Prior knowledge:
The structure holds 2 protein chains of 2 kinds.
Chain A: H1 20-34, E1 44-45, E2 50-51, E3 55-56, E4 63-71, H2 76-79, E5 84-87, E6 90-92, H3 96-106, E7 117-122, H4 128-140, E8 145-149, E9 151-152
Parallel strand pairs in A: 2-9, 4-7, 7-8
Antiparallel strand pairs in A: 1-4, 4-5, 5-6
Chain B: H1 13-27, E1 34-39, E2 60-65, E3 71-73, E4 76-78, H2 80-92, E5 103-108, E6 112-117, E7 120-125, H3 131-157, H4 166-175, E8 180-182
Parallel strand pairs in B: 2-7, 7-8
Antiparallel strand pairs in B: 2-3, 3-4, 5-6
Amino acid sequence: MSKFRKDGKKDLPAISTASLPDIVFMLLFFFMVATTMREVDLNVDIMVPAAKEITKLEKKDLVSNIYVGVPMRKFTKTYGTEPRIQLNDQFATVEDIQAFIASERESRKEELRNKLTTSLKVDQYTKMGIITDIKQELRKASSLKLNYSTRETAE
Amino acid sequence: MARKTPEINSSSMADIAFLLLIFFLVTTTMDVDTGIYKKLPPIPEKDQQNDDVKVKQRNVFSILVNRNNELLVNGEVLSISQLRDKTKEFFLNPTNSENLPEKAMKNVPFFGDVMVSKGLISLQNDRGTKYETYIRVQDELAAASRELKDDKSMQKWGKKYAELDVDQQAAVRKYIPVQISEAEPRNTGGK
């Protein structure tokens, strides 16, 4: 007489999937909160330089980005292979920066306007000439908070 | 007679949630923006343009970067890896050398009367300098500044500069004022 009777006829009970939506929803909420949508499509190739002494950029809504790099393959016919500036979705020239900063200020609340930071996302092989011009324009627009976007050095 | 309301079939709930989940998974970019923070000097007003403060030669740590990404530091060719130690030496001036910057007695909170270096970093780059080199120079200078501050706060509080509170940080900053001034670039290398 065995204590452990094997009952071959009994079916394995199905695993309840009732909690599956809950699990999935939890994941969903996590990603919804963590998501920041890409605001612009990059038209230029950018590989930012690496640095060690970096700080995190807080308050993303108070940051306006200026991209500088070599135009992507599909744009080289029209825009050449020299590094170009991209503001929002379009290629721009140095002269457009003041207007860009003005419109960025315009779109923020009044009390936050002087807290705007400009983040320069520049390809590492760019020459300093164009960056100096941008800095000069930023000074003229009295947008003095500047962030050179870098990635962390892999050690 | 009240009819029994049929239960809503919720088996498709998981599918809907999955669909949304996949959408957000695909669109997520979790990169945190990091970078080197700098403050630009305001444009000088026209009527005070010639009012530049004259700084003694020995107080200036001049860094020139040419278009071949070579460094000339106070008339001496250096590699970027040497820059950090040179900068620290310049600010500390441990032997009170004639060629390194003067120090002035200053009252700093927490520290009392201390000798504060009058040193100033002047950075000049060519239009043809590579951006990567520029960032590396900035990075090394920032590292030197941080190490100096860490040393001082280690001595005083046994903590790193970043762990101090706001007042203490301000005091350390006053003790070690690292100023970087960037000259208008010269146009010699072309674009």
